[in-house]
Amino acid sequence: MTEKKKTNECGFVVCLNNEGYAASLERHKIYRILHDPAAEKDGDLRIVDESGEDYLYPKEWFVLIEVPKAVETSLLRTA
User: Which fold has domain 9-78?
Assistant: First the structure.
């Protein structure tokens, strides 16, 4: 894991792979991502996982999705 560089949330992803991290990530679940240019440059995404904290995971484990505003509001409220 690299130094945290939290800025604005930049979207949502669906998890496709949780190999080795079953307690931290659930396949097919929507997760928030935080903008982290250094991590993205290295092929990682900063994901707010099941612990409620943000960690780096391989980008290829996720698919970026767009959600309607009402869904976004709901997801952010329950986080």
Answer: SH3 type barrels. (2.30.30)
